[in-house]
Amino acid sequence: MSLFESANAQALDQDVVEQAMLWMVTLQSGVCSETERMACHHWRKQSAVHEAAWQRLTGLNRDVRESAQLIAPESARRLLKARHATSRRSLLKGFAGLGVVMATGVSVHERVLLPQLFSDYHTAIGERRTVSLSEGVGLTLDTQTALDTQATAASLNLKLNLGRVLLSNYMTPDVTVQTANGRIHPAPHSRLIVSQGLPDQPGTQVQVLAGSASIEQGRADRISLQAGQQLTFSSHSSGEPTRVIAASTAWVNGLLIAERMPLAQVIAQLNRYRRGVLRCDPAVGALQVSGSFSIDRPDASLALLTRVLPIRVQRVFGYWANVVPA
Amino acid sequence: MHPSSSTRSVIGELYVQHHGWVVQLLRRKLGNQEQALDLAQDTFVRMLRTDTHPSLREPRAYLTTIASRLCGQYFRRQALERAYMESLTALEPEHVPSPEARLLVLEALDAVGQVLDGLGSKVREVFLLSQLDGLTYPQIAERMDLTVNVVQKAMLKAYRHCYSAVYAA
Predict the structure, then answer these.
(1) Single pTM value for the model
(2) How many angstroms separate the CA atoms of A196 and A210, rounded?
(3) Looking at chain A, which residues constitute the CATH 3.55.50.30 domain(s)?
(4) Can you give the pLDDT at residue A7?
(5) How far is A273 from chain B (nearest CA, A)?
(6) Which CATH topology does B1-97 take?
(7) Is-contact A233 A212, C-beta < 8 A?
(8) One fold for both B1-97 and B118-169?
């Protein structure tokens, strides 16, 4: 997805890579002959490994160009010079002789903080995970979910910090789910979805799929929800319970099911499962979408959308894409 | 990618034992407590992300290596940001890019900068003149006062470097 990524790349024969580089350097000279061009073409066709090495080099070229495409070449060169001009001596002071500078980096948008990784349960972008708690409680965590558990001999308290979980309470009377906005008490033999801080949904949402649950919110009376009911609430207010739509559990199976859903909302959903920035141009945001889309393969879903709607995906960088009118 | 629970516990233990020491090391280097905490965090995150888990008989040597790389990257990133912000001061306010656009420019340039790290300034300039400006080798030779043969060799060197930075790291 992102620039200069070599995900799971196999090692290629070094001699072949060297040969490919010689061809590349020859062809990029700006003064190579038609004969040389043909000979290079012929070399690439000789074997799949030749072609693979060639493709890696053209990929490198493309990434270098893309990485500087937002500014003039001259500015890019000047800025890179400034970047590299940092004195090596000052860098090495205190680290004398240790390590060669390597080319991989933790970029800002990927930065993950340790407390999150060490929180009891935590899913990455695009990850979905099912865990079974020994207390007879089953949990499925959606993408970008952070959850803490506090268990005592008699009770289990789950703290949903962010994201979405599907919870099946097989028997325990004393299980609760705490969010920033209130506390949910699922009845034994109930199944429900709790989400916190999702886009387009401020606060907490509870969707009861089976059994019942009650919600405790500040000093107000508990609100009781039955199977098929859902409620969205903040710490000081809540609306009326509404009906749970059938497609609500689709994410558990890796699907997003849209029924006359505005495109902007579909894109916002896919964005949660995809690394990087995904934007929807307001000019096409109101287009209605019906269909089922894979959230495990958000880019394939985007491609599908471009086939059925008058839109196209404009890739600003590998990881930043805009959905715009075709 | 998600680290396994055993990896997490090994690194959790390292974190408990050496976090303070790494922060101290970085603070000496950076002269800034907050930055030191940030990079110390990244140091451990980096360990969580590596596939191969060294048995770590010398955890501090290993941590120092990672911390030093991050430190170098941090300094270069700072230098890049400074140069970029300076270049923007020359612009009319309405032409100054949004913070988000600025971040994208910096991220992308930093990415290519990291791949080029370790190349000499002349080789780097040759490579960028070819790739970004689209100049021919004779044009580059003339502009930098080199022979075409030297330009060609520099290009080959740059390709070898970039290839191993991306594919052999």
Answers:
(1) 0.50
(2) 20
(3) 254-325
(4) 56
(5) 13
(6) Rna Polymerase Sigma Factor; Chain: A (1.10.1740)
(7) no
(8) no
ipTM of the complex: 0.82
CA angle A213, A273, A307 (to 5 degrees): 115
Alpha-carbon distance of B101 to B96, in angstroms, equals 10
Q: How far away is chain B from the Cα of A290, in angstroms, using its nearest Cα?
A: 31
Interface test with A, best of B49, B126, B163 (most A CBs within 10 A): B163
| Dihedral class, residue A47 (left if φ above 0, else alpha if ψ from -120 to 50, else beta) | beta
Q: Which pLDDT band holds residue A232 (cuts at 50, 70, 90)? A: very high
Instruction: Note whether B89 contacts A: Cβ–Cβ < 8 A.
Output: no
From B29, B103, B131, residue closest to A65, measured CB to CB: B131
Identify the CATH class of A125-248.
mainly beta
Model confidence over B67-108: pLDDT tens digits? Answer: 888 888 888 888 898 888 888 887 777 778 888 888 888 888
Q: Is B107 helix (H, G, I), strand (E, B) or coil?
A: helix
Q: Is B13 helix (H, G, I), strand (E, B) or coil?
A: helix
A63:B112 CB<8 A: yes
Query: Which residue ranges make up each domain of chain B?
Result: 1-97, 118-169
Query: At which residue do the structure tokens 């002959």 appear?
Result: A33
Is residue B81 within 8 A of residue B106, CB to CB? The reply is: yes
CA dihedral of A115, A117, A123, A127, whole degrees rounded to 10: 140
Q: Which fold has domain A254-325?
A: Phage tail protein beta-alpha-beta fold (3.55.50)
User: What is the CATH architecture of B118-169?
Assistant: Orthogonal Bundle (1.10)
Tokens of B137: 């080798």
| Beta-carbon pairs below 8 A across chains A and B | 211
Q: What is the pLDDT of residues A171-192, one digit of tens each?
A: 777 889 999 889 999 998 899 9
- Helix, coil or strand: residue A304: helix
